[in-house]
TrEMBL record:
Region of interest: Disordered: 26-50
Signal listed as a keyword: yes
Keywords: Signal
SUPFAM superfamilies noted in UniProt: Soluble quinoprotein glucose dehydrogenase
Pfam families, per the entry: GSDH
Glucose/Sorbosone dehydrogenase domain location: 68-209
Keyword Signal found: yes
Protein name: Glucose/Sorbosone dehydrogenase domain-containing protein
Feature: compositional bias, Pro residues: 37-50
Signal peptide (residue range): 1-16
Cross-referenced InterPro entries: 6-blade_b-propeller_TolB-like, Glc/Sorbosone_DH, Quinoprot_gluc/sorb_DH_b-prop
C-alpha cells in the first residue's frame, strides 16, 4: 500500500525516493566545459561610462535588490540572473539595462529558508529550464521552472527546520544535478543515511515524473553554504557550517572526499568559486572573501587563506565566475541588519579588472 501511495504522490507532487549508496562516483562521466584562461587577465568588468539606472548604486552591476541568494552569470559576462531569498523573485540584471523580473516563485521565507539557489539546465538554450532550491511551509524541495509555466517539483520532503535550511544546486554534467541540503538544525539528521538532510544528493536525469532514486555523494553536512566546481580538474568544493567549525571540503572526480580547510571561529562560509586550484570563499559574518590555494600535484593547501576582499560591499553570499574570467558576488546586507541605502547589490569582486587571482603575487 505504501508503495502504491508513493507512486501516486510521485505523479502528483514529486515524492522523494532515496538511495543511500555512496560507492559510485559523484557524477556520471561529467564533461566539464573548459574554464576561462587566467592569462592574460580579463578587462575591467564594468563599463567606463555607467548606464544611467533608476537605482543610483555605483560600481555595481545592480543595486536596490532585496537580500540575495543564488547568482547565475550569463554568457555575455555583463548580465546575470539573481535570486532574492525572501521575495522569491528571480531578476535579470545587467550593467547596461534596468532589471526585470524573470519569474516569481512562491516560497516560505521563515527562518533562513526561502528561495535559496537557482541553476540553469546545461542545455538551457534548447529546453529553457531553470531549477531552484526552495522552502515551502512543510519542506525544502527542488523545483523545475520552464519559461511561461508553473514550478513543478523534482525532489520533495527535504527536512525543514527553524534554521539549517540553506543549500545549493550545481550541475556536474548534462544529466547530473547535485543538491546540497542543510541539516535543518539537527546534526543527527545529517548523519542519518535515511534522511535527505545534511547531504550532497545526486539526481540523475531530473524529471517531474518517475524520478530515479537519489543517491548520496556526501553526508554529515551542517547548514548549507555552497558548491563550486573547478573546471580544470572536475573537483567539487562544498562549504558548510557545523556547530564546531565552518568547512571547505573537496570531492574529486573519483569520489575521494577530503577536508580542505576549517574555520573554528565560524565566520559564516557561503558562496565559492574555483579555478586551477584556487578556491574563493565568501565569509558572510566577517565581510570577507578569502582565497584558499591548493598545490597542483598533491591538492594540499599551500598556506593560510588569503584575504582578497574585506569590508567592501558588506556581507556577500553568492560568488560566481563569469565566462570572461571576472568574479562577481551578491550581498545579503538587508538580512544582516546593516544595509546601506542602495543595498542589496550584485558587484564585481575585482572592479579594476584582473579577474580570478592566479598566484599569490597577483595584485587584487
Amino acid at each position: 500500500m505504501a508503495a502504491v501511495l508513493c507512486a501516486a504522490m510521485l505523479v502528483g507532487s514529486g515524492c522523494a525516493r532515496f538511495d543511500a549508496a555512496q560507492s559510485e562516483p559523484f557524477t556520471t562521466e561529467p564533461k566539464m566545459a573548459p574554464g576561462p584562461t587566467t592569462t592574460p587577465p580579463p578587462p575591467p568588468p564594468l563599463p567606463a561610462k555607467p548606464f544611467p539606472k533608476e537605482c543610483k548604486a555605483t560600481g555595481v552591476m545592480q543595486g536596490c535588490l532585496d537580500s540575495t541568494s543564488g547568482l547565475i552569470m550569463l554568457p555575455d559576462s555583463q548580465s546575470a540572473l539573481v535570486a532574492e531569498r525572501l521575495t522569491g523573485a528571480v531578476k535579470q540584471v545587467s550593467v547596461k539595462a534596468e532589471p526585470k523580473v524573470k519569474v516569481m516563485i512562491p516560497v516560505d521565507s521563515s527562518g533562513d529558508g526561502g528561495l535559496m539557489d537557482i541553476v540553469l539546465s546545461p542545455t538551457y538554450g534548447q529546453d529553457r529550464l531553470m531549477y531552484a532550491y526552495v522552502s515551502t511551509p512543510t519542506d525544502n524541495r527542488v523545483i523545475r521552472i520552464a519559461d511561461g509555466d508553473v514550478p513543478k517539483p523534482i525532489l520533495t520532503g527535504i527536512p525543514k527546520g527553524a534554521t539549517g535550511n540553506t543549500g545549493s544546486l550545481a550541475f556536474t554534467s548534462k544529466t547530473t544535478l547535485l543538491v546540497q541540503t542543510g541539516d535543518a538544525g539537527d546534526p543527527a539528521l545529517a548523519a542519518d543515511p535515511g534522511s535527505l538532510a545534511g547531504k550532497v544528493l545526486r539526481i540523475e536525469q531530473p524529471t517531474t515524473i518517475n524520478q530515479a532514486p537519489v543517491t548520496t555523494a556526501l553526508s554529515g553536512l551542517g547548514a548549507g553554504g555552497s558548491m563550486c566546481i573547478d573546471s580544470s580538474d572536475g573537483s567539487l568544493y562544498v562549504t558548510d557550517r557545523t556547530p564546531s567549525a565552518d568547512r571547505l571540503q573537496r570531492i574529486t572526480k573519483d569520489s575521494k572526499v577530503s577536508t580542505v580547510w576549517t574555520w573554528p571561529d565560524r565566520p559564516g562560509v557561503a558562496g565559492c568559486a574555483a579555478l586551477e586550484g584556487t578556491v574563493l570563499v565568501n565569509l558572510v559574518n566577517s565581510k570577507k572573501t578569502v582565497a584558499v590555494r591548493l598545490a597542483p600535484d598533491t591538492g594540499a593547501v599551500t598556506g593560510d587563506p588569503e584575504v582578497v576582499r574585506e569590508n567592501v560591499r558588506g556581507h556577500a553570499w553568492a560568488l560566481q565566475l563569469s565566462p570572461d574570467g571576472n568574479v562577481w558576488g551578491a550581498t545579503v546586507n538587508r538580512t544582516t541588519g546593516d544595509a546601506e541605502i542602495f543595498d542589496d547589490v550584485v558587484f564585481p569582486l575585482f572592479p579594476q579588472g584582473g579577474g580570478f587571482p592566479r598566484t599569490n603575487a597577483d595584485n587584487t
